[in-house]
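HOLO CASE FILE
Compound: biotin
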Amino acid sequence: MSQFNQQKFINSLSNIQRARISQISNPSTPHHLHIFSNIPSTNQTLWQLIDSGASPGTIVIATQQTAGRGQWGRNWISSIGGLYMSVAPNISISQTPQLTLSTAWGIASNLQDYGVPVKIKWPNDLILENRKLGGILTETRINKKKISQAIIGIGINWANSVPDTGINLQSYYRNQSQPEIFSLEMLAAIVFHGVDSGIKQLSESGIESILPAYTQLLINIGQEVVVEDRIGEVVGVTNSGELKVKINPNPATLNTQSQIFSSEINLKPGTISLGYGQISRGVGE
Ligand code: BTN
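Model generated. Tokens follow.
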């Protein structure tokens, strides 16, 4: 598989939009679609296209990347067979974490509609059977404290090789009797529709309308974490996308009034790395 079939993508997308599985009022048509076989990074190429006048709404898809970017400055290994897609939404949103959360929710819930029981690891890892199926990298340009342009880059493992902590959809399907996603193009269409529904929901109804469903998909609720040497438990996510941790009372000082009640700390994305179930350490404010 070395080619990405543009027509197949467009047909899949219109079928998905017609099926209106995840209802959105006004689904977007990808009017400027750029498909490459091998580029350094779809995010990088999309920024270059925007700098040379491409309009918001433009999409870049590559069948392979040589310098894929991951979160926190990591590399995203992007061998052939995976989905590598970047989208430049046409919206004015003031908070990057909200955009990231909404996109993760949109993609995960759309994949669930197609029978893939994807969960989310805060803030935006897509998890299947306790392994990483994909990730989202939101890059923004800020002007006067507002996001002037955002690019959302999505990598999903379809048939590409993955590390031990990863999973691709093809290997998941080996144990499933009735796969509902039949091609990389169909996966791309579902993911695009997911991004579109997440962003529309955020801009029309606010993060409050997404958080309950997002939290339901989180694998981290109830997870034990250590913040500044105190043990706590993940209890939710705030409106600005921070992780809410309930810190347990310190047994050594339990007889003092102030320690009887547990306190809550909010952690910004990037200040704690949550594993897949083991205790994680973070830094509170
Ligand atoms: C993560 O680290 O979890 C996020 C990975 C995001 C990778 C995608 S692949 C398409 C787009 N282009 C990039 O260079 N990165 C993102």
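CASE NOTES: The chain has two domains: 6-217, 224-282. The longest strand covers residues 131-143.
CLOSED: yes
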